Amino acid sequence: MTAEDWIAIALLGGVGATARWGLGLVLTRRGPAWLDPGVLLANVLGCLLLGALVGSGAVTTRFGLLLGLGLCGALTTWSTPTVSFVRAPSAPAALGYALQVAASLAAFLGATFLASSGG
Length: 119
Description:
The protein is mainly α. It has one domain (3-116).
């Protein structure tokens, strides 16, 4: 990888992280306390995009690889729902977080499969 590739990954990562942060700002206050719809939406969108890159073969191109690594890598997060689950203040909250983690995993796999198979 060249220095330009690393710079592109960093810039695309900044775009992805900013998009996830923005979705979190707009959507996090919606729904029950244990549900984080901004992070969930960011993860599903990132999986759809990465699945589309893989399914179309674009991930084998330089641009597709940089887009997958930078944008999709920063847009998606597994740590936020996991930390929320570990820090849950009560059993009902822990159950809610566990449901979000399970639903997230199903959504991520489904979105990736759907996009990579062409729909």
